[in-house]
UniProtKB/TrEMBL annotation:
This is Leucine-rich repeat LGI family member 2. Keywords: Glycoprotein, Repeat, Signal. PROSITE patterns: EAR. InterPro entries: EAR (IPR009039), EPTP (IPR005492), LGI_related (IPR051295).
Length: 188
């Protein structure tokens, strides 16, 4: 735990029979650290994305492969893919033109992977997996956004865009137009 200075997020997940947890470190000299269970406790297993002030991570299945997406206030989001032979995550790709991201959430609509990326100042975005990379579907002007949270309720998809400065907004998926439409403002 000596390498973790300022934890900002924790992800817990299983790959095969092994359990892991990831501590996302947002300090200037931080090291996002992957821990692995060894029957007596968790121990540091792999250091990822050193020195980038990571803010959030998301673990999910992408085309049958285990991936981690790390977002940062200081560089574009990066995608790590699990390598079965080395039993480690390796840098696979990055999501261009998306800087100053504070959170990432993965979700699916009709089994197609999407990402919701919250940008504190700028445009938060929804991105769709094309089979090769994530492509922008829609932007949401953001001021003080800390999360763009997808939820599914009664077979309807929603996004909640939080805000430190104004009303939070709820968007609902429009099946006909294949994008999110504003549903209502919420004062929190």
């Amino acid at each position: 735990m000596l390498n973790v200075s300022k934890p900002n997020d924790i992800e817990v997940f299983q790959i095969g029979d092994d359990w892991f947890f990831l501590i996302v470190d947002s300090s200037k000299a931080g090291m996002t650290t992957l821990f692995k269970w060894n029957e007596t406790g968790f121990y540091p297993y792999q250091f990822l994305h050193e020195w980038f002030r990571d803010t959030d991570a998301e673990f999910f299945d992408l085309d049958g492969k285990s991936v981690l997406i790390l977002v940062s206030r200081s560089q574009v989001p990066v995608i790590y893919q699990w390598n079965k032979s080395t039993q480690k995550f390796v840098l696979h790709d990055e999501i261009a033109n998306m800087e100053d991201i504070v959170s990432v959430k993965a979700f699916r609509i009709h089994d197609v992977p999407f990402l919701a990326l919250a940008c504190y100042i700028g445009d938060s975005k929804v991105m769709k997996w094309t089979g090769k990379h994530f492509e922008e579907v829609q932007g949401f002007p953001s001021r003080g956004a800390t999360v763009l949270q997808p939820i599914k309720f009664k077979d309807q998809h929603y996004l909640i865009l939080s805000s430190d400065y104004s009303f939070s907004q709820i968007f609902r998926w429009d099946e006909e137009n294949q994008n999110f439409k504003k549903f209502r403002d919420v004062y929190v």
